[in-house]
Amino acid sequence: AKARGKGCYLLFESHMHEQLLDRLDSESRLRDAVHRGELRLHLQPVVDLIQRKTAGVEALVRWEDPERGLQQPGAFIPLAEETGLITEIDRWVLFEACLAVKQWQDRTPDASPAWVSVNLSAANLDIPDLTDRVAYALATTGLSPHCLVLELTETVLMRDIAVTSARLEELRELGVKIAIDDFGTGYSSLGYLRDIPVDVLKVDRSFITGLEDNPRQQDLVSAVIQLGHTLGLKVVAEGVETEDQLRLLSRMGARYAQGYYLGRPAPADQLSTNTATVRAG
Ligand code: C2E
Ligand code: CA
Ligand code: CA
Ligand code: CA
To answer: Primary place of residence (predicted)?
Structure first.
């Protein structure tokens, strides 16, 4: 029994060792990904349910890992956040997203999104020249500041409220808009609405999933939509996957929706040729 116990221990140890090597390997390859041009920009439509057309797009990053193929954010964003690489990734996405949408607007002014939203991880708020980075991306690409939305989760906003508010005000003075992402999943959702200057509220997918089967959830989502509107915010329902969900949201007065039912994330060139096929009910 003793020998077996020891064997198990060694097995466990070598497994840990492998994991560590694997992680170091991923980390060094992720570190080079930006410079090697391995990041890919995908855009997902945000649909205006009244005008029945794509109103905006959300920028979502992918990593074309030469060893493992196309990686979704869940596979590398956590590592990027732990290692601090995330601010370089976010900077790349910010620039590419502004560029892609500006080019789209120039090409087809009547059939292009009015805004692009970009996700910012917490570490960005510690960068002293964040506002300069944003201003630089806008100036170099020529995208109007009114066309850019920065998405921050409640966990990001949860840090020092005074510092965060000052930061966001600085950004808003450029003319860009601020969205609270994954609204409703944080620690003090109502607190942020009171204390933090925001323009857009994105209702988390967990409140949309199963909406058709849960009257109580419907009342809750309906109330959140009204709340957002009362505060003068744009409200976007995330993760809409079915026609029933879309119909319910329309009936509740939701103006904007995003989800697989309306359009999956895709490279900009694929999306721009498909905008005519948007479904809105
Ligand atoms: P998020 O910001 O909440 O983005 C929405 C996620 O939900 C995206 O996943 C999108 O593909 C997915 N989604 C959209 N519609 C549906 C639907 O109808 N059903 C389901 N099941 N999922 C849907 P994705 O692209 O895998 O990104 C996951 C998360 O990674 C994002 O969540 C965001 O937190 C983070 N992320 C993505 N790109 C970036 C980035 O450039 N920078 C930073 N900091 N984070 C990013
Ligand atoms: Ca987001
Ligand atoms: Ca979200
Ligand atoms: Ca999320």
So the answer is: membrane
How many Å lie between the centroid of ligand 1 and the Cα of residue 21? Answer: 28
For residue 60, which of 34, 85, 32, 40 has the smallest C-alpha distance?
40
Q: What is the C-alpha separation between 131 and 174, in angstroms, rounded?
A: 8
Residue 71 and residue 89 in contact, taking contact as beta carbons nearer than 8 Å: no
CA dihedral 72, 78, 83, 85 (to 10 degrees): 40
Assess whether the C-beta atom of 121 lies below 6 angstroms from ligand 1. yes
Q: What is the pTM of this model?
A: 0.92
In tens, the pLDDT along 34-79 reads 889 999 999 999 999 999 999 999 999 999 998 899 999 999 999 9
- 211 φ/ψ angles, rounded to the nearest 5 degrees: -55, -40
How does 171-188 read in b/e, with b if 16+ C-beta sit within 10 Å?
Answer: bbeeebbbbbbbbbebee
Give the Å distance between the CA of 104 and the centre of ligand 2: 21
Pairing of strands 53-65, 69-71: antiparallel
Residue 24 has pLDDT above 90, yes or no: no
Q: Which ligand ends up closest to the CA of 77?
A: 1
Two structure tokens written together for 136: 């630089």
Please give the single-letter amino acid code of residue 59. A
Distances (CA, A) of 73 to 65, 84, 117, 160: 12, 15, 16, 27
- Residues 65, 258, 127, 105, CA torsion sign: positive
